[in-house]
Amino acid sequence: MCELLGMSASVPTDICFSFTGLTERGGVTGPHTDGWGIVFYEDGGTREFRDWLPSSRSRIAELVKQYPIHSRIVISHIRQANVGAVSLVNTHPFTRELWGKPWTFAHNGQMKEYQYLPGGFQPIGTTDSEAAFCNLLNRIRASFVQGPTACRELWPMILAFCQECQSEGVFNMLLSQGDFLFCFCSNNLYRYTRRTRQQKELLKDVQMEVDLNGITGHCTTVSVVATQPLTESELWQKMQPGEAVVFKDGDIVWHHLPD
Amino acid sequence: MCELLGMSASVPTDICFSFTGLTERGGVTGPHTDGWGIVFYEDGGTREFRDWLPSSRSRIAELVKQYPIHSRIVISHIRQANVGAVSLVNTHPFTRELWGKPWTFAHNGQMKEYQYLPGGFQPIGTTDSEAAFCNLLNRIRASFVQGPTACRELWPMILAFCQECQSEGVFNMLLSQGDFLFCFCSNNLYRYTRRTRQQKELLKDVQMEVDLNGITGHCTTVSVVATQPLTESELWQKMQPGEAVVFKDGDIVWHHLPD
Description:
Two copies of one chain form a homodimer. Chain A is an alpha+beta fold. Chain A has one domain (about 5-255): Glutamine Phosphoribosylpyrophosphate, subunit 1, domain 1 (4-Layer Sandwich). Helix content of chain A is about 20%, strand content about 35%. Chain A contains five helices and 15 strands. The first copy, chain A, has a seven-stranded antiparallel β-sheet with strand order 3-2-4-1-12-9-13, with helices on one face. In chain A, strand 10 (about 200-205) and strand 11 (about 210) form a beta hairpin. In chain A, helix 1 packs antiparallel against helix 2 (about 60-65). The longest helix of chain A is centred in the middle third of the chain and has 16 residues, at about 130-145. In chain A, about 50% of the residues are buried. Chains A, B: This is Putative glutamine amidotransferase. Chains A, B: It holds the Pfam family GATase_4. Chains A, B: It comes from Gynuella sunshinyii YC6258. Chains A, B: One of its GO terms (molecular function) is transferase activity. Chains A, B: Keywords: Glutamine amidotransferase, Transferase.
């Protein structure tokens, strides 16, 4: 199993704080030692960092923890390999351009018999995750030749895809193209939304107190999604199996709860 | 104008030395202050770093200069904006997946009236360079539905594309998909190939002596291509306008000289 981290915010916000907690899981407080990656959206483009070294020992992760990159959407992943060797090609998040936007995808779980269906987008590595990402993008592109007129037209299709994947194994997933953050919970995903400034937050994995005023600046809406709660003091909400949430600018713009 | 740097090597080799010289041009010894990027190929995957800050002031560039990432193919670019704002989306190198390989492209020059022709690959930013990259990949994909049986089938088509671009302006270009490094000289590109160990090399921009034994290890073939020679002591060869060279494992595997 791996660990996911996603953020959607109303103003460009840095994720150093949450990422620091996540990277501790990559070899210090957790067993996820098979690489990590993070993608930041900035003005429609992306900046990515990845390493096949454990995040707790990676010099690149050290930089990301200390360097405040301000972004409205971030997707990060630390890996414990099951399908696919430890290698850069198998390191999430995966990215592809579709309709002139950089799409980013990260997955937690395993689908043992998962099949890639040949199409325009092809996997570079050997994970079930990247195969699923390519299948999803090929399906989206085939359904909307010129792109949808509004992003919300995509949600039912992406949800249906996630449900299919869930029927083949475990499929906790984060997806973005720079405007929205789509999150699907198969069995293990927590979320919280912070609407106002808070004074202090205790980071669970490293017992570090951080003044959030200095991090997000003035009042903002910031939503964070993670495999496990990253802080003690915040009220993390466990998502239900089959639940899907779409965030835009930190707020929920679409929500599916299973029957 | 911008500055290009490319490397092809017979064994995974770090480029800290050449990159250090390049980044000095990004705001210290040169005027290229509008961002920079670098893509390293490792085991078929890529690792990229980019910033819209000048390379001479970028903390990310500082890490890349000090952190020896071993790669057989590297493409880097520092930018002086002409077409397209200073932004991450307009920062070279550009990357796209085609046939399950990560393709990387960087361009030096300007084509004022250049047109993007709608196709599957679409630009994310607003540069003439990314438009040309997308046009090139769309043409390649349309010509080889399943991919070519051998890479060399691609060279005449890529060369013809470069010649067309050259007729529209200045088009010095580096392209790779992890196996080969394709280099086209429109008006300004230097190359050298080093086949044996050398004792010392004087970096032109920072007056620093470096022991190359410690950098490339035992005997290797390393070819470097750059807009301007990066070292004093090496014998850099100025490429001719219209000249194209393809490197694989540091050696030239295809060479086109203009009539």
